[in-house]
Amino acid sequence: MRNQRILGHFTESAELKQKAAKVLAGPIAAAADLMFSVLTQGNKILACGNGGSAADCQHFAAELVGRFEQERLPLPAMALTTDTSILTAVGNDYSYQDIFAKQIQAFGQPGDLLLAISTSGNSSNVIAAIEAAHEREMNIVALTGKGGGNIGAMLSDSDVHICVPHERTARIQEVHLLVIHCLCDGIDAALFGEDINE
Ligand SMILES: O=C(CO)[C@@H](O)[C@H](O)[C@H](O)[C@H](O)COP(=O)(O)O
Ligand SMILES: [Zn+2]
User: How far, in Å, CA of 125 to CA of 25, rounded?
Assistant: First the structure.
């Protein structure tokens, strides 16, 4: 019985990844191209999300600042989820909704990119971050699921939306991590001059 539950998780995750590969390959390639051009123009990537998505932001920033699979120069990416003094001060003095938006107002520059991660597409602090990034004339790559929620509806044509076709948070997060590794690989491939359209 317990093993059946475990097998169920593996099967559902594997089947979703196969299905998502078909619908997400185009938007992932577009996001990797956008990130490459942002980084090579001297701009940076800021990332925000809650819970497991906060961990994804940190994972992504670590792979850009450190490395993914190949040795290269450090790339400027920062998770907005890690400074507990900023998070508690803004959460306490303003509201939890403002914890990422304030940091975007502080650090975001036109031409920078916000990686916004929300499985529901409805987290209000991620929505506020996207609004702040739009005001700052930043690019946006949004990782969502469940049809994209309110975030899907507020993105502009120049933003990239990677929406996992599933309703279950855990499954969506598992695909988000795979997307993040595809983005790291796409950026590295472009930096090393490989033909990423092959
Ligand atoms: O990892 C999980 C569930 O798998 C949780 O920590 C989850 O990330 C949190 O409930 C988040 O607050 C959900 O926010 P969101 O993905 O809907 O924006
Ligand atoms: Zn989780």
Answer: 28
Residues, CB within 5 angstroms of ligand 2 (ion)? 52, 173
Local structure of residue 79 (DSSP, 8 states): E
> What ligand 1 atom has the least distance to the C-alpha of 126?
18
| Residues 141/34, Cβ–Cβ less than 8 Å | yes
Is any ligand 1 atom within 6 A of the Cβ of residue 81? no
Tell the residue number behind the tokens 């107002």, with chain if given: 105
Ligand 1 pocket test: pick from 87, 97, 119, 146 the residue with the most ligand atoms within 8 Å of its Cβ: 119
Q: Is the dihedral of CA 55, 58, 64, 69 positive or negative?
A: negative
Pocket flag, ligand 1, residue 139 (CB < 6 Å): no
Residue 65 has phi, psi (to 5 degrees) of -75, -40
pLDDT tens by residue, 90-140 = 999 999 999 999 999 999 999 999 999 999 999 999 999 999 999 999 999
Give me the domains of the chain, ranges plus CATH numbers: 2-191 (3.40.50.10490)
Which residue's CA is the closest to the ligand 1 atom numbered 7?
51
ipTM of the complex: 0.99
